[in-house]
Amino acid sequence: QKLLRLGITSKQIKQVFTTGKPFYSLPVYSPYNGHVHDIPHTQLAGMGNIKPSENYGNNVSLSVREGMYVEKGQNIFNVVDPHRLWAIIKIEGSAIAGLKLNQRVKISLPDMPEVTIDGNVDFIEPFLQPGDKSTSIRVFIHNMQHQLKVNSLVKANIQLKSNNGLWIPRSALIDLGQTQMVWLKNGAIYKASRVKVGAINGNEIQIIKGLSQRDSIAENAQYLTDSENFIKTQEDE
Fold this sequence. Notes:
Mean pLDDT: 78
Number of helices: 3
Strand order of the largest sheet: 9-13-12-11-10
Number of strands: 13
Low-confidence stretches: 41-53
Radius of gyration: 29 Å
Oligomer: single chain
């Protein structure tokens, strides 16, 4: 039982009982399947706990050699299993409110347009990366046929839950930083009107406050904006 816990296989133990001879050279088998890749030379030499490199594209020869001495707990090489991958999808901050776990995701690959992959939102990262205002989610993908390659670019289509509100072209909105406005038709003229925006979907943006279905707005707000004057939206005027 102790040998089994140390990683010796049942077949090897049975061979000892059958032959009555000990092993002078004992093969050690990894409990993981995958491709063998090298690790940094400094870590192999025992110079501290250095995080292994994740760039497995460089197929360099292994540093470990037959006859070398190794210590207990020492990492000798990395075993990378490409059968199960995850896709990292970047989501704009305005769309996070409608994003939930287990939502359906359809993934396509620009390099393989004929391939589409169906998956779910399996993990939503609870933090932002430095310098990145988008939120990352992970979609776990089965890759048993090795059809997908690590570090490939992907595109994702996620059907968010339906949101209440009006949807207008993004060109009809002017973003003033802390304030967003549209040009609302009032009789024969247009006036700047403050609105509150929600989710963004392609070339459309959701208006959750400040407009009604009966209102008429300018489709391209930039044509009515005088860049030399400051747009005042106090009291929605």
